[in-house]
Amino acid sequence: MRRVPTVSGSVRAVTPAGWFVAAIALMIVLDAVTPGARWLRAPWRLVGLVVAAAGVALHVAATRHFRHHHTTHAPLARPAALVTDGPYHHTRNPMYLAGVLMLLGLDALLGSATPLLVLPLWMVLMRARFIRPEEALLARTFGQAYAAYRTRVRRWI
After folding, report:
1. CB under 8 Å to 109, separation ≥6 — which residues?
2. Distances (CA, A) of 36 to 112, 134, 150
3. Residue 151, Cβ density class (10 Å: 0-12 exposed, 13-18 middle, ≥19 buried)
4. pLDDT in tens, 26-46
5. Cα–Cα distance, 59 to 72 (Å, whole number)
6. H helices of the chain, where?
7. Nearest to 148 by CA among 137, 136, 157, 139
8. I want to staple 40 with a disulfide (CB 3.0 to 4.6 A). Which of 11, 34, 59, 111 is the partner?
9. CA-to-CA distance for 49 and 134, rounded, in angstroms?
10. pLDDT per residue over 66-114, tens digit each?
């Protein structure tokens, strides 16, 4: 997994992308080993492609906005700008929300209930390990501007 240097100088061994890939693998294993109840049948499982594609599109849009503002999207790296437009006008964490949509899409494609258990676990992990520290960094870096943004825009949706 890629190692990302953080503002504090420490290194986080696993990035959100690494945890995302691990969540995908766990969902597939759970589906194969203990699928649980089937909540979607073919052809309705193909709805998962639409949901996952929406997640991919959201992630691409969020990444482009970071590039447009010449700031990093690396977790816990010092940002050069507070991005509040585009998808960031609607959610403070569009990249994490995109991950939720992609994982939900995968579960729909699998069509079984057990892999869905991974989704809330991934969300809790992202919040504890990345979102909260990122929010603290943004508050220290951008002060009142970030505080005002937090009051206007929700974390997820």
Report:
1. 45, 46, 48, 49, 52
2. 6, 36, 39
3. exposed
4. 999 999 999 888 888 888 899
5. 14
6. 16-33, 47-68, 94-110, 118-126, 132-152
7. 139
8. 111
9. 30
10. 999 999 989 889 999 999 999 999 999 999 999 999 999 999 999 999 9
First and final C-alpha spacing in the chain? 29
Are 131 and 155 in contact, with CB atoms under 8 Å apart?
yes
Find the largest Cα–Cα distance for the chain: 50
The answer to whether 72 and 79 have CB atoms below 8 angstroms apart is: yes
What's the mean pLDDT when you consider all of the chain? 91
d(CA 6, CA 39): 41
| pLDDT at 5 exceeding the cut of 80 | no
- 32 near 41, Cβ under 8 Å? no
- Classify burial at 85, counting beta carbons within 10 Å of its beta carbon; exposed 0-12, middle 13-18, buried 19 or more: exposed
